[in-house]
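Hello again, I could really use a second opinion on something today. Take your time with it, there's no hurry, and the full record follows here:

___
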Amino acid sequence: MERLQDAGYPTIAPANPLRGLPTDAPYIASVLKSITGPIVLVGHSYGGAVITNAAAGIPNVKALVSIAAFVPDQGEQLGVLINKYPGSIIQAATQAVPYPNPDGTTGTDLYLVADRFRTVFAADVPVATTRLMQATQRPFSASSFTDVTTATAWHTIPSWGLVAGEDKAIPPALERFFYQRAGARSVVEVPGASHVVMISHPGTTACLIEDAAKATT
C-alpha cells in the first residue's frame, strides 16, 4: 500500500471480518458501494473468494487482482478446491478453537499453530517477522471451507493474478488453474515465494496492481 500511495493511488484496506462468505462478501460489498470512482479490488488467499462474491454487480469495480488467492466459481467450496492439486499443508497446521455465536450456537475458528506458521505461511519472510505475524494472526471461520460461492465477479470484470511459486497454503498449480479459468489478462509468477508473497515481494505485487489500474481506470 505504501508503494501504491507513493505512486498517487488512493488506497483503502477494509478489514475482512473472516466470519465466512455469507458475512464477509456482503460486508466488503457495502464498503465498495461507499466508494466513488473506479476501483481496483485486490484479494489475497481467502480474500480472493470474498472479492469474487463481493464485487458482482458493482459497476465501478473495474479490475480484480488475485494475490496467491482462491478464485472460485459459482457453487464451489474452498474445502473441495484446495484438494484439486497436491501441495497444501495448511489444514493440517491449524488448531480449531470453538467460540459462541449470539444465537447460542457454536462456531469454530482456525488458527495456524506456532511451530508450523512459518513453514506453511511465510517461509521466505524473516523469522522475527513471522513470529509477530503468528502472534497477531486473525483466525478465520472453519465454515469458510464449506461456504458456497454464490456470485462470480470474474465472469464480467477483468482479472490479474499472482502465483506464489512455493506456496504451501494454496498450491501454485491451483492458483494457475484459477487464473487461467478466469481469463486473467496477466499472470505473474514469483519463484520461491511463500503464501504471503505481498510481504516478501511487495514491489512485484504493487506493479501488478498498478498494471491493472492503468489498463482499466
The mean pLDDT is 97. The two ends are 18 Å apart (CA to CA). Residues 2-216 form a domain with the Rossmann fold fold (CATH 3.40.50.1820).
